[in-house]
Amino acid sequence: MTAPATRASTTLAWLDGTLEGNGLASTSTAGAEAVAIDAAGEGGVFLAGRAASEIGINRLQVANSTGLPFADSGSVISALSFWADNLSVRAADGGPVTLSISFSFEGSYVGPCCDAANPSSTFGNAYFLAAPGRFLDIGQGEEDGPISFTTSLGSAVLRGQATAVPGGLLSVASLCDGDDGEDGCDPFSASATYTLDFTIGSDEDFWLAGYFFVGDLAQGESVDAFHSARLLGISIDPGAVLTSESGRIVRRADGSYGLPAAIPEPATWAMMILGFGLVGMRMRRTVFLSYQ
């Protein structure tokens, strides 16, 4: 287990790629700060990606040599966006409180998946979860090391679909219906909402998290979720009060809780698809001119 950072983090954006045998990596634990990989090789091969995370929002967009034939070659890219917030609820009568927490996801996978001739190596999923205790820290001790996290109930390595959360779960929702715990959903195209429903004692701590990951995206594939996975809102029993440690989840006029008023998406995210296309076009033009 990696030792906790000096300043605890509750967000993580991570990209890791290999282009023609050269390793590329980028990690950020500064909320809302995007990490990026943009690299080009020979013959139209390229890796491009952006990932960002802030309390309540996951953003992720990656591509591997789109427009070229599918190949599980020496060039792959993986990505992760994670956030967590510590919450507690208090009922006026001191009794248990029932919560209903809703999330949205918009995104798509594009690739030649999946048959015997094109056995995609890609795996991925988006999860929304609530767990008992307090979330303390997340980080990566070494560039190529595992991403680990610590809660008041224990520590674990974040292994995507195989993660065992210390203390168990209060509730969880997954992008992949019938997830087998290994392959996730591939391909996918989703614009849907998900809900966590559970009851917890008054003044008991719990943490809420969202994470979206893609592993080993191969040549000819792309994942576009710049529209993001995000927290929509939290409804609780009348008279109960919810507290967010980050301060990002606030009470609304209707008595529910959620993120502050939406801020327009950064232009860089809206330009990502165009950017991927321009990289591919530039590479193809370079190859064409080299034969003149």
Automatic annotation (TrEMBL):
Official protein name in the record: Ice-binding protein C-terminal domain-containing protein
Residue spans crossing the bilayer: 266-283
Lineage per the UniProt record: Bacteria, Pseudomonadati, Pseudomonadota, Alphaproteobacteria, Sphingomonadales
Keyword Transmembrane helix tagged: yes
InterPro entries: Ice-binding_C
Ice-binding protein C-terminal domain sequence ranges: 262-285
Organism from which the protein derives: Edaphosphingomonas fennica
Keywords from the UniProt entry: Membrane, Transmembrane, Transmembrane helix
